[in-house]
Amino acid sequence: MTLSTGLVMGRLPSRTPIAAGNIVPMTTTDLAPSRSAVGASATAAILVYSDNAAIRAQVRGAIGDSLGGRAVELTDVATSKQAMFLAEENHYDLVIMDNETTKCGGVGLTRQMRNELTNQQPLVLLLLARQQDAWLAAWSRADAAVVRPVDPFELRRIVAGLLHLEAD
Questions:
Q1: What total number of domains does the chain contain?
Q2: Please, what sign has the CA dihedral across residues 160, 161, 165, 167?
Q3: For strand 70-77 and strand 66-67, is the pairing parallel, antiparallel, or unpaired?
Q4: Are the C-beta atoms of 71 and 46 separated by less than 8 Å?
Q5: Spatial contact of 143 and 31, defined as CB atoms under 8 Å apart
Q6: Taking the alpha carbons of 59, 25, 99, 139 in that order, is the dihedral positive or negative?
Q7: What is the span of the domain harbouring residue 145?
Q8: Which CATH number do you get for residue 50?
Q9: Sign of CA dihedral 165, 22, 26, 17
Q10: CB atoms within 10 A of CB 39
Q11: Rounded to whole angstroms, how far apart are CA atoms 150 and 7?
């Protein structure tokens, strides 16, 4: 299956070769029961983790204030401590993590969230710098990974798909 993006979704076997444009679709059995789609009248709560302000601004610009007719509440943080604290204290439908964040990249923080969060497990979208890091995304148990740079319209479509919303 080939698409025009470097998107990798779902649980990947550790030896699956990933080349630009390949996609492995996510199935609903990959999602834990606590990871549900955004409700009909709910606001989509999204946490963006990156120490790069430009990356956070690109994600914010791509997603916007609404998605599929639902309001979007974006919170962005620059440190892993902030991200873990907010993920423990709040309900986020989706966490978008930059793997190139220094000290603690998105892959490591995703794995930590999967192992330590007990109140709820949000969906996680990783922003990878290299296609060769797709195996790390699978190891971290991320729900999806995108190889940067990502077209803003494509990122919006991916986020909408993860949240089971229509991209406007």
A1: 1
A2: positive
A3: antiparallel
A4: no
A5: yes
A6: positive
A7: 7-11+41-162
A8: 3.40.50.2300
A9: negative
A10: 10
A11: 9
Residue 29 belongs to some domain of the structure: no
Q: Could you give the C-alpha distances from 142 to 10, 64, 112, 123, in angstroms and in order? A: 8, 23, 11, 7
What average pLDDT does this structure show over 98-123? 93
Q: Is residue 139 part of a domain?
A: yes
Q: What share of the chain is helix, strand, coil (3-state, %, to 5)?
A: 35, 20, 45
Structure tokens at 143: 């729900």
- Backbone φ and ψ for 129, nearest 5 degrees, come out as -85, -25
- The mean pLDDT of 91-102, rounded to a whole number, is 95
The 3-state DSSP class for residue 155 equals helix
61 in a domain, yes or no?
A: yes
The answer as to whether 30 is a domain residue is no
Between CA 50 and CA 2 the distance in angstroms is 29
| 114 within 8 A of 27, measured Cβ to Cβ | no
Label residue 24 by pLDDT band (50, 70, 90).
very low
**pLDDT tens digits for range 113-148:** 999 998 789 999 999 999 999 999 999 999 999 999
Nearest to 77 by CA among 46, 108, 113, 43: 46
CA dihedral sign, ordered 30, 99, 42, 153: negative
3-class DSSP assignment, residue 128: strand
